[in-house]
Structures are given as C-alpha cells and as structure tokens.
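Worked Example 4.2. Consider the chain below.
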Amino acid sequence: MRARPSPNQRMGPRPAAPAPTPQREGERLAKRVAALVNCSRREAEQIIEGGWVQVNGQVVEEPMVRVLDQTVLVDPLANPMALSEVTLLLHKPPGWEAMAPLGTANKRTKPAQALLQPAAHWVQDESAERVLKRHLAKLSASVPLETAASGLVVFTQDWRVLRKLTEDAAVIEHEYVVEVQGEVSAEQLHRLNAPVASARAALPAVKISVNSTSKASTRLRYAVKGAHPGLAAYLCECAGLQILSMKRLRIGRVTLAHLPEGQWRYLLPHERF
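Applying the procedure from the previous section yields the following structure tokens:
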C-alpha cells in the first residue's frame, strides 16, 4: 500500500524567505555636525546649507547625506544665521523665456532660469557671496522680457524684492536699446514718441531718442515705465521701422552694465530697483 504524501510534499517546496533589507550605514551629516559644534539639529542644517562643511575635503550642502568614517570639518567662521535670500541678475540671450518655470522646458520653450548654473556665474561679480546650491533654487521671475530680446532679467528669493518689482511695476522705468533697420527720419522719431491719437490713450508714455545711426541701422534709446512686452514692436511697426534686435539695459536703478550675455551675478547690497 502506497504511503500518503505529507502536507509539505503535496504543497511543494517552501518559498525562500525574503532577504532582510540592508540597514543604511552611518548617520545624517546634520547629526554629526550638531555633535561637532554643539548646536541644534536645525542650526547644523543651516551651517551645512551655508556651504561651511567639508566631507573628506569636499564641500557638501545636503544635510541628509549619511556619513560613517569620513572626515567632517566645519569652518570655524560658520554662522547658522548668515543664510540670506538672494537676488540674481541674468543677461538673458535671445530665444530664452524669461518667465517660464523650469518644469516647462521642451523643444519650443527654453526657461531662462536654466541658465543659472554655477559655471555661468560672472567671475567679476563684486559681491561677497559664495555660490551655493540653495541660491539656485526657489527663485521667482517677476519682470517679463520678450523671448527674442536680450538683456537684464531678475530672479529672486527675497519677498521684499519680489513685492517691489510687482507692486511698483507700473512706475519702475525700463531702458532698452532697440536697433532698427536703416536710418530713422525726424518724422518717424516723432511718430514713435507720439503715436496716433486713437491709440495714444491706451499706450504708456515713452521716451525714444536716437543713440547712434548708420546707413545700415539705427540704435534707439527706448525708456518706458513698466515692462510692456510687445510695445516696442508695435510702435516701430506704426512708424514703418523693422526691429533687428532689442536689449534691456536697466530696470529702475539696477543696470546690466558689463555683465556678459548668458552669465549672471548677485544683486549687490547697495543696489535698489
């Protein structure tokens, strides 16, 4: 008589037990720094985010990084209260969208904020700021500029700067250089400054003068309160002029100066829009 199979034989071999999840080694950098300088965990995070900590000789700005037996050094000048909200000035090249968020990048949209990389920081920046990863995050663009134009664009983390640029947008003067094809006659210049009566009431007041001229092109100085994208193109079209290029030189009292195209710098402490 054949023996009956045991319950285990009928069900087949038992499945292997799942491998234990390996434990993450080490401790958070913030915890190590807090112990080294005898401060709170939050203060340690601020010290790390401020670029004051080196791990094996390399600056690390992420408090959640885990360390084991690495050498962790904290700069003696570290100050957890020194973190500040920054404002960055970019010389936007043509073709980049001044107001587009980073998440909208595609073949047709190139957010100008993507140009804010450490490698593009102007070497002649007169600020005392060290470029930190936190400076290039959580930035707001508040002053539009035509995609085809180049020139000064502002990105800020500072709510005071953002409020100034938004609440006072209508009274902050913008200065541009607009290059048009050919020479500009006295009549055309008059039409630029005094558009037809039917449109005059709906348009902001502008100040346009000839900056330089040649047979091939004329450079116009164009000043207006507020950004008003498309206004220069409309005025030039009404005057029978074709725009070749446009560059914003100034927003309020802050100027582009010698900042090279495609590079950025920090707003200096004494600069005010």
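Residues 29-37 form the longest helix (9 residues). The helical segments are 7-11, 29-37, 41-49, 159-167, 186-193, 197-200, 231-238. Compare this with Example 4.1 before moving on.
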